[in-house]
Amino acid sequence: MVKTSNNLLWYSILFAILLGLGYSIILASQSIQYTWRWERIVPYLINTEPKPILSPYDGTVTVSANADAIMVSSDDGESAFEVKVFSQLEVEDGDQVFEGDVIASLSEWRLGPIANGLLMTLKISIVSLFFAVVIGLFVGLARISSNPILKHLSMLYVELVRGTPLLVQIFIFYFFIGTVLELDRFTAGAAALSVFAAAYVAEIIRSGIQSVPVGQMEAARSLGMTYVQAMVYIILPQAFKRTLPPMAGQFITLIKDSSLVSVISITDLTKAGREVVSGTFAPFEVWFTVALLYLLLTGSLSWLVNKLEKRMASSD
């Protein structure tokens, strides 16, 4: 009974703090005389406005008897543009139209620029996470290798990457390496993020492997396992459990760091937000929305890692 009362008290305090934070934001907006217009953001998330269908050239309109198809015949008689799917007819049979004129409209739901930016951020983050783990695993194993070449090259890679800003690395990958190898923007951005995150993943994996007692490897080798078999079946599974929390933190950081690829004109969530701000003049609504979407991505990842951590703990 006492514990329940204490929990109720603390939850009440938490609610009061959150309520105070929200009220402080309202007071701040009033002090700068800012008018909130959240309705401006909706079309940039989900656009429900009819999509215009334009005439590709100058010509004459022909409407079918049932008004279920439109054809624009070019003035030279060599081309014909037919439309069978539309919601609203904007011309009549026999009308003369010019290139770019609206001949019909189609009602459909389309993703707005912010939603498309979210998908781009999700895409580049997933690709970068995958290659960061692959590269980081090999570099982490090289860091504990007895081969001096592998050990020192991996150490040089980790120190070089961790010691230089990600923004500089993105520029190098895009303007230098990307030019030599003819990489597109997405590939260059994903490669820069992968190489940057892999340096941190390598150190996490190295520390995880070294945290496993040495006797585990010795016992596996005494049972006749090779070094690779012992590492794959004995050491790495134990190291993975121990490195899961810091690995999740690094993945979350990578998702947020992906906003830097906007400097090479990749329309991710951050760049889409900047473009929407310039068109709506609603900076607070846009950036709060962008922040919430980033929070959705990182929160989902945290939830998945937490579920995986509990499942692995229950399997022990």
Give a written overview of the molecule.
There is one protein chain. With 316 residues, the chain is an alpha+beta fold. It folds into three domains: 2-34; 49-108, OB fold (Dihydrolipoamide Acetyltransferase, E2P); 113-314, Orthogonal Bundle (MetI-like fold), CATH 1.10.3720. 66% of the residues lie in helices and 10% in strands. The strands form three sheets. A four-stranded antiparallel sheet has the order 5-4-3-7, with no helix packed on it. It has a three-stranded antiparallel sheet with strand order 2-8-6, with no helix packed on it. The protein has a two-stranded antiparallel sheet with strand order 1-9. Strand 4 and strand 5 (80-83) form a beta hairpin. The longest helix has 32 residues, at 283-314. The chain starts with a helix and ends with a helix. The model has no long low-confidence stretch (mean pLDDT 86). Keywords: Amino-acid transport, Cell membrane, Membrane, Transmembrane, Transmembrane helix, Transport. It comes from Oceanospirillum multiglobuliferum. It is a multi-pass membrane protein. The chain crosses the membrane at residues 7-28, 124-144, 156-177, 183-202, 223-240, 286-305.
